[in-house]
Amino acid sequence: MGLPEWDTRVDSRVLDWLRGLPSKECRQIVMKMLEMSRDPCPPDSGPLKGVEGGRRVDVGEYHLLYHVDPDARRVVFFVAGRRNDDEVYRELENLRRRIRDYMAQAAGARRP
Fold this sequence. Notes:
alpha+beta; YaeB-like fold; globular
C-alpha cells in the first residue's frame, strides 16, 4: 500500500469514537479511510446535502461524513456513527459549523 495522495485528517471526536469500537469494526473503518486518502469520492460515496464539499459513505453498519477540499487535496472526516442512529445526522449541524471554521482557517493559511 503506497502513501496517500490526499492530505487526510480525522477530527478528534471521530478518533475518540473509533477507540470505542470493537477492533474488527475499527479496522474496517480505518481501512476505508486509507482507501479514501487515494480516492476521496469512490462510487459507494455520495454528496452530503446542504454541505458544500461534504460527502458521506457507509462502511458496514456505520456512516462516515467528511469534507473534500480539491484545491488543497485534503479530506477531513468530521462525523461517524451507526447507520440506524440519528445521532450522526444530529451532528450534521455541528459538522456544518466545523467545516465553515475549517475552511476559514484554511483560507487564512493560504494567504501570503
